[in-house]
């Protein structure tokens, strides 16, 4: 699952089509090379101030605040469901004395998908990237679903010094007001396997019906 070849660019998939079909140890080694090619291409696509951080199995797209200075308190900002860095970076102009690291959640914006489709899986994917980017310690600001991921990160990393939750759900299965939005997103992106998996596993939403989870 960590290879997630279906997320690669079309030309890379075509190049490794035989290896994908075989599934032998040798083929899996070749697919590792394909994943490395894909990640290298992703890194080249982003210039400063955007950067690609190494997560547990993939890459996380991030942007540091324009006025980043050593010695200031640092905050990681995590966005809500299906958002990207642009949806949360407006906070920067209101807190000029802090450093901000805006990060696309796994599978959102320019970040690669997590190996496990869950809040915990997203936290596990991001944690190595965040600790490498801000090793001295950091606070986390999480909006909506990003708050759920941030809460999990705060429980697993002693380097997380503070946590701010903005409209964060504590039971994603019961967010009925999000279901119509998510079904609309699926309808607009029918070939997006990550989106279909995310909406089902996190929110219990299918393209035509909502299934409440315990």
Please give a structural write-up.
There is one protein chain. This protein has seven helices and six strands; from the N terminus they run αααββββαβαβαα. Strands 1-2-4-3-5-6 form a six-stranded mixed sheet, with helices on both faces. The chain is α/β, with parallel strands linked by helices. A hairpin with a 4-residue loop joins β1 and β2 (59-64). It has helices at 10-15, 17-22, 25-45, 119-133, 145-156, 176-188, 193-203; strands at 50-54, 59-64, 74-78, 99-103, 138-143, 160-166. The protein has three domains: 1-45, no CATH class; 48-170, Alpha/Beta hydrolase fold, catalytic domain (Rossmann fold, 3-Layer(aba) Sandwich); 173-203, no CATH class. The longest helix has 21 residues, at 25-45. It is globular, with a radius of gyration of 18 Å.
Summarize, please:
The protein contains seven helices and six strands. It has 214 residues and is of the alpha/beta class.
The largest sheet has its strands arranged as 1-2-4-3-5-6
Alpha carbon gyration radius? 18 Å
The helix/strand order is HHHEEEEHEHEHH
Helix count, per DSSP? 7
Mean pLDDT: 78
CATH topology of the largest domain: Rossmann fold
Task: Give start-end ranges of low-pLDDT stretches.
Answer: none
Q: Helix coverage percent of residues?
A: 25-40%
CATH class membership of the largest domain: Alpha Beta
Principal-axes geometry comes out as globular
Q: What kind of sheet is the major sheet?
A: 6 strands, mixed
Tell how many strands the DSSP assignment holds. 6
CATH superfamily caption of the largest domain: Alpha/Beta hydrolase fold, catalytic domain
Structure class: alpha/beta
Q: What is the rounded distance between the termini? A: 26 Å
Beta percentage is 15-25%
Q: Identify the CATH architecture of the largest domain.
A: 3-Layer(aba) Sandwich
| Number of structural domains | 3
